[in-house]
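Q: what sequence does this backbone want?
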């Protein structure tokens, strides 16, 4: 079900083990994934020139989002506020399945990721982060003489 994104990703293996243990005790998976750290849901892929990360974060105020890249670790953090009335309004909430509160996701990027060439855009609740790969790591054709 879960595969490591990059072969040297020790943190992903620890995350996978934690998810497996939590999944064993959680009988009702939710729309936000397994456990509390499942928000925002991520899609990660790449091309020979870029690493593409999509974080699905509907209802998150762009001012609360933080994207940091330090020593090969990409961190996405922020806060989603509840649209429901607060406790002081004395309103009854009968069902509340939507996650609200602070969140943080951390990804380990491969060694060829260029920390100087990162772009992040938020559109329609989807955060799209593009990390360029270093030019020295690009495949190149060698001319035969």
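A:
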């Amino acid at each position: 079900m879960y595969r490591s994104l990059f072969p040297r990703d020790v943190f992903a293996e620890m995350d996978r083990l934690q998810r497996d243990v939590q999944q064993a005790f959680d009988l009702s998976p939710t729309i936000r994934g397994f456990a509390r750290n499942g928000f925002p849901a991520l899609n990660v892929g790449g091309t020979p020139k870029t690493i593409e990360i999509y974080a699905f974060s509907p209802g998150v105020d762009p001012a609360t989002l933080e994207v940091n890249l330090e020593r090969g670790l990409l961190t996405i953090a922020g806060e989603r506020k509840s649209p429901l009335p607060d406790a002081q309004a004395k309103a009854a909430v009968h069902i509340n399945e939507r996650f609200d509160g602070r969140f943080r996701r951390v990804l380990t990027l491969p060694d060829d990721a260029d920390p100087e060439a990162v772009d992040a855009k938020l559109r329609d609740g989807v955060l799209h982060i593009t990390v360029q790969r270093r030019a020295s790591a690009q495949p190149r054709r060698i001319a035969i003489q």
